[in-house]
Amino acid sequence: MTCREVVELMTDYLEGALSAEYRAKFEDHIAGCDGCRAYLSQLRTTRMVVGKLADEPIPANIEAELMKAFQDWSLAGQV
Amino acid sequence: MVEGGERRARSPITSALTSRLSLAGVGESRDEAELAALKAGDEAAFSALIKRHHGPMLRLAMAYVRDPAAAEDVVQETWLTCLRNLDRFEGRSTLKTWIFGIAMNLARSRRRKEARVLPFASLFRRDDSDRAGATVDGSRFGADGMWATRPDSWRSLPEERVLSSETLQRVKRAIEALPVKQREVITLRDVAGFDAGEVCAFLSISPENQRVRLHRARAAVRKMLEGYLR
Ligand SMILES: [Zn+2]
Prior knowledge:
The complex is a heterodimer of chains A (about 80) and B (about 230). Chain A is mainly α and about 80 residues long. Chain A has 5 helices and no strands. Chain A has a single domain, classed as Orthogonal Bundle (Arc Repressor Mutant, subunit A). Chain A has helices spanning about 5-10, 10-15, 20-30, 35-50, 60-75. Chain B has about 230 residues and is an all-alpha fold. Chain B is built from 10 helices and no strands. Chain B has helices spanning about 10-20, 25-40, 45-65, 70-85, 95-115, 160, 165-175, 180-190, 195-205, 205-230. The structure holds zinc ion. The site of zinc ion has 6 residues of chain A, from helix 1 and helix 4.
């Protein structure tokens, strides 16, 4: 397997979607290739950084409006 | 005093749910406890719920709607719709899946409305997201297909740089620049934390298409980061 091929299999690898045969070839290549190991590590970091977008806090005004709506709903049964 | 006040506090549904807790699985019982608390008017439970899902839901709305104010509207409308329909939630999916399904429907219909009023060329841009192709510039490899210019290791970079607000802004923009099919998959998977099977069900796509879209989306964000973090 070439590096050019290996990089295109990385998501399938991370998803556990490679056949046993391809997985073995992939891991063989990775074991001896600094460049592909660095690329795989970059993809994992990318996934982690994208995940940080989830941490965006709720703006106070939106939170206040929603809490008011919840109170109305739980008291009057409607919003 | 509003008629029907505190009706929910002693709802028979609440006690029925609570009594079923011991039979349910772990995720399911957490949902049921949360649902029971919501139906009982527990403000702390609702506050925790909207805080937990705000970021992912806003990013998901932004995957469909360009205008941040419109995306915030989608988020607010999602919560109101959830409250209006909470009595009809039957637990056939997780609470989170149900909530995000509502958000996605609202965001998509908002997008269709935007498309009707705006000459928004990018909405109709050709989207070849399901085609597997090279995600790394061919010039990075030699004639033998091995790296000519190896990727750098990011391990020595300080975390403050990798996770700086500047980096996160750039990641947001990189995702917003993707075709919608890739944008929705990377947002559902990597921001909202749904698994592959849930994303296939949400979007009615095959596992192969889900992986191809995810691969292309992550590769595009990686490429942007490579340039930025150099
Ligand atoms: Zn390699």
